[in-house]
Every structure is written in structure tokens, then in C-alpha cells.
Amino acid sequence: MFTGNNVRLRAEKKEDIALLTKIKNEVEVLENLTIYIPYPQGVEAGEYRFNEKIKDKYTKNPAFIIEKHDGTVIGQCGTMHTNWKNSYTIVWIYIGGAENRGCGYGAEALSLLVGYIFKQMNLNRVGLFVFDFNKRAIKSYEKIGFKLEGILRQELYRNGRYNDVYQMSILKSEYFSMSGGESHVL
Amino acid sequence: MYFKGELVNLRAITETDIKPCVEYLNNPDIILNLDDDAPMPVSYEHEKEWFTENIKNKDIYKGFHLAIETKDGRFLGSCGANDIDAKNRIATVGLFIGDKDYLGKGYGTEAMKLLLSFTFNELNINKVKLHVFEFNKRAIKSYEKCGFKVEAVAREAIFRFGKYHDEYIMSILKDEFLANEGSI
Fold first, then answer.
1. What is the pTM of this model?
2. What is each CA distance from A125 to A5, A21, B76, B107, B136, in whole angstroms?
3. How many angstroms away from the CA of B154 is the closest CA of chain A?
4. Which residues of chain A make contact with B36, given a CB cutoff of 8 A?
5. Domain for residue A93, yes or no?
6. Which of B88, B151, B152 sits opposite A35 (nearest CB)?
7. pLDDT tens, position by position, for chain B (184 residues)?
8. Do residue A86 and residue B36 have CB atoms under 8 angstroms apart?
9. Strand (E) positions, chain B?
10. Domain total in chain A
11. Nearest CB neighbour to A150, from listed B85, B127, B151
12. What's the CATH number where A126 sits?
């Protein structure tokens, strides 16, 4: 359920906060992750978020640490805005360190997460948003089975101009028709 | 100016609008096109609470709502921006005409044009967007008349009438609106 060929998903621990803060403050992560003002945060903000999150015992928006099999933490992925009635969630992911990007780790982690959403959370639709300048991520999401369902024009002001945002999704029916519920990248 | 049209005026929502508003929102034909939650009946108290909270809001960038009325003062519904993304300068708008005698006659379309004019000319917004269910054909046509374009189709994004339906995300950019403001 949580383990792929190269990475696994696990719970976030207090000890991860410092490293996660560092990763989230990498310019490549800041630029590509948030539609809000991309500003760096301290460890304290991470601790606050962690302490709030653990109170939410029956969360509808699970999130995981992504680590390699040797235990190196490389990023995080999770869900947000889960809507039970309309049966959808939205996923997010980030991978830190240039050496970890472009190796398929993110695709594998996201595939595990998508499988978890369809097989354990009983949802019908997984959506995501990705910025038009993040070509590598778009390619990776297509490989997993996400389809482009629209281009949100001038949706993001960043680096001095308005950029488009790609809206992608994968449906439960599509997921289970791909190799019996196992995504191609696993 | 922005708040006076040929068929409708936009004005502040007042306490006397609550009663007709509750009546409109309890009509399944209205609410099933408006909200992606399950269509629960609403009470006067519920709407009154919304009204009381709403008039406390002084920051227009947190959203705003206006009543739509006919030229002779009949309350038809409301419109406004539920959400404004300040940094990206995007307003997500919504509109409803609750009196079915006034549907399909251009009242909603004119109200939306007034809302767009106000938003682009006075709020310094770069993009106005909205969400509409694919089965609400009348609304889609009206938004197209105002200059909105479908930019994404969120597949199976709403469960209603026993199955999943697509949801359209439509938008209009400031340049598009201001270039045609005289003609649309």
C-alpha cells in the first residue's frame, strides 16, 4: 500500500520538520508549489502545522513523507480539499534536492498516493494543478495517467508576469482500467 | 454607472431581501444549479445569520454581494464575488435569479455585465472566473454572452441526480472585457 520500487510513503515525524522546512524553502519548490506569495518559512511554522495536524485524528486530507528505501527523506505528498459528497480530492507533491528530481521518485510516490486514494479512501476523482513552466512535472503526471482537462489562463502571477495553470485529473474508472489498478510506473 | 442597467439595478442587500431569498433558495430548480452541496432546505434564521455576518465585512477583497432588482424594485436574486485571490487578481463570481418568471429574459446576463464592469474597472482585477454545472445550459449560454470562455472541464466533479456530472470553469480576462466593453 505504501511501498514502491524506489520510495515509500510514511507518517511525518517531529524529527522531519527541520529537513522539510529546508526543502520547502528551496526556490525550485517555492516557485512550483504555491499560488500564494512564495516566501520562506521558519522551523516554528512547520512545528505549528505539525502540532495542529496530529490533533486531526480522523483527517480527510492524509499526507505522507516520501523517503527512499535507504531512509533518505526527499519530500512530501498529500491531499487537500477532500469532498466526500462529490467524491474528489486534490493532490500535491514536492521533491527536494536537484539530485532527486527527474529520477522518477515523484512519479512513483504520486502513483502510490493515487492508488491509496482510489483503493483506501473510496473517492471517484483526483485533481491537481500544475504551473505551465513546470514541464517536468506535467510530463510525470501524464505518465501516471492524469489527463489535462483545461488550461487556466493567467491564473498565477509569478516572476513578473501572469502564467497559465494546467488542471489535470484522473478518475477512478480510468485508474482501475489501467493494468488492474496498478499504475504503469509501479 | 456600474450599478444601473436597462433591465436591472444592483444595490446593497437589505434585511427585507432575506424572506424572498429564502423562498428562492428553497426552490430545487434554483438551488440545484447553484451549490455543489446536497440541496438542504434553508431557514429564515440561517439566511439572517449569513446576512448579519456579511454586513460586518468591510474589506471588499474578502468578497462582496449585491442584490439584483428590476427597475421597478422587485428583488430577483443576487450576485457577487465569493472569493478574491488578491495576489493573482482573480475574482470568483456567482449569480442567481430566483424568480423563475425572470429567467431566460436577459436579466441575469445584464446583472453579470454590470458586475464585470464594476470588477474590472474599480477592483483592479485581472481575471473573473466562475464554476457552472454542465446541465445548467441556460447559465452557460448567458455567461458566453457576457464574454466568458470555457477554460476547463472538471470531469465528474459534481454528484447530482444519481450520477456524476462535469463542471465547467469559465473565465474572462481584463483585456478581453475592456476591449469589448462598449459592444457586449
1. 0.94
2. 25, 30, 36, 36, 21
3. 6
4. 83, 85-86
5. yes
6. B88
7. 799 999 999 999 999 999 999 999 999 999 999 999 999 999 999 999 999 999 898 899 999 999 999 999 999 999 999 999 999 999 999 999 999 999 999 999 999 999 999 999 999 999 999 999 999 999 999 999 999 999 999 999 999 999 999 999 999 999 999 998 866 5
8. yes
9. 8-11, 64-70, 75-85, 90-97, 127-133, 149-160, 163-173
10. 1
11. B151
12. 3.40.630.30
